[in-house]
Protein 1
Amino acid sequence: MPLGASRVQGFPGLFESYRYALWKDLVDGAFDFDFVGTNQDLWEYESYKNFCFDNEHEGRGGWTAAQINANIDAWLKSVGDVDIVLFSSPGGNDALNGADFSGIVENINAIIDKIQAHNPNITIIIEQLAPGKSSFMTDEYTLLFAQMKTVIAQIASIQTTTTSMVIAADMATGFTDDLLADDIHYNKAGAEFIAARYYNKLVPLLN
């Protein structure tokens, strides 16, 4: 289940989601997988190797961790079986909207709690989010994103149980301005960068 906001949903022609690039990577790897979610794209993607893009997800542009927290139970109940969640840019929109840091962390932890309650054996890959464009990243944003990177690693460690792994995926290191379509969203190269980071985390799990 790809979970998050606009970086998950994408808007082809303006900015890209990593999902299409990751889907192609997984097809190339000959893995048996199924993207799930209650949301589907309204636009078409090109087929690849005679496969049609699996466009189900839980990405909603502009949504905050608080909004995701309020809806995650219903989404999980509707979808049913979920083995892996790809938790994208947690708290990103909250931070951009000036939300309280402790509240952001509280909502991220609550989302993970609800996912693990749905399936105690689930694996969650949670992003240490990629920054926005350098001209957009004020000192305040830069500090907050750095704090989030540290906290996400801590959350992954604390929330991992004997049956449910929570794995931090570093999307920030090596991420540069030329991977962005605008101040915060991925272009094609950016989407491929993020997809590759996810793929590297998924391969040992899927094998």
Protein 2
Amino acid sequence: MPRARARHVVVLLSLLLPGALAGCKTKAIRGGEGTDNPNLDEGAMSTGLDRKDLDDLMKKNLASLQASPLWGQWRTSSQPVVAIWPIKNDTTEHLDDQMLTLLSDMETELINGGVVAIVSRERQAEMIAEANLQQTADFNPALAAQIGKQIGAQYFITGKLQAVDERMNKERRVQYTLFMQVIEVETSIVKFQTKSERSKAIIR
């Protein structure tokens, strides 16, 4: 290629490339209620649990609790004192932040329901620290009874998250189950139990 023509091509590319690259530039968008993209959170990015999945699972379980005879009993009595024990993550996913959000959302829903009095999770953590005990997601009846007496809780809400992972060829499906229990502190009797399920898949 003659030198003059090559120089002409370089100049032409230098003029065209910035425009082409600008067209490919990554753009951040805002989604959710009250934005131009209200359904942005609806789409799944992977088979992992996201905040919407956990929120849906939690709300289904709370709806079952609020339709139960136990809830009806609580409605007709003076506000029972309830504490929320950590939800055990039995999946292989690292969900520490998501689980903390789940507990906070559950606490908010129960407080705003006005039927039960909820012990602050921060206060519960303080009691565990003062007793020189390690906070764990495993529900320990003896530990729960000790903490329950200190914080005045009559019931604990606890649960666990489990997953079944299935693969075939290049397809994958993960079935998640969130179990929830209400346990009476004084007797360790399970007063209510329910579960909700969510499946996520990658199909090629």
Protein 3
Amino acid sequence: MLRLLDPYKVLLDIGPVQMSIAAERRGAPLGREWRKLEDLVSGWLADIQRCLSEVKKPWTELSVTAGYPKVVHRMYAAVSFTGEPGLTPMAAVAGTIAGLVRDHLVEQGASKVLVNNGGDIAIHLGKGEKTVVGVAPRLGASPSHFLELKAGSPVGGIATSGLGGRSFTLGIADAAVAIAASPEVADACATALGNAVNVDSILIERRLARELDPATDIPNLMVTTSVGPLPEEQRAEALRRGMQKARQLIDDKLLLGAALFLNGQMLQYPDRLVCPIK
């Protein structure tokens, strides 16, 4: 269902997708351009469903030459770029769909588009456009930091992974925020970052993913269910490991920056990537 919230914003609710979309054409609201979105997203979801047995496998078990639908190919490409062998294409599904929605509206003439697919954000800023994106330190919290973007910025996607999100995590981050040129790559990298913010501790509870969700794409992996009050040295080590992964992804030209949150602490790279809300 597509519901117009105001002349510049719609809410799209189809199956597993609940996204808010803000768009305009040089200050004016869109009109008929909204109409095809419901059918397009339904079609992409149907394509994913037809390939479900494939997209739930680690990307290393799939073939780059396979004739996947566009949405599945973009999911596959995003996770393969990370080099993380345990990721499945489902690690990039939300960012991919957000990016496809953005691309469609830009093709229809939108000069500014912001798609928020459950925290996976796709952005387009045409000439003269700007926006501010809030960054929350954990699920359900108000933003504590912000990122200001203007036309010409290389940022096209921002994604967040962490404990308590829509997907399982192997790590303990409250929020692992990945900023990239594309939303699907941001989504895949956020998963990798969230997994990397990690330590071994008796204060961390984990269970096999299949025990929590028999339909999960990572059935045999131990996922985090809760984290107790970790001592300072363990929090610092978990953040260090996460930042090491972030720097690697930035060096590999996959990420533009990252911010990691754990138990009230935050690390970011590069410095002043996001600014505190005062």
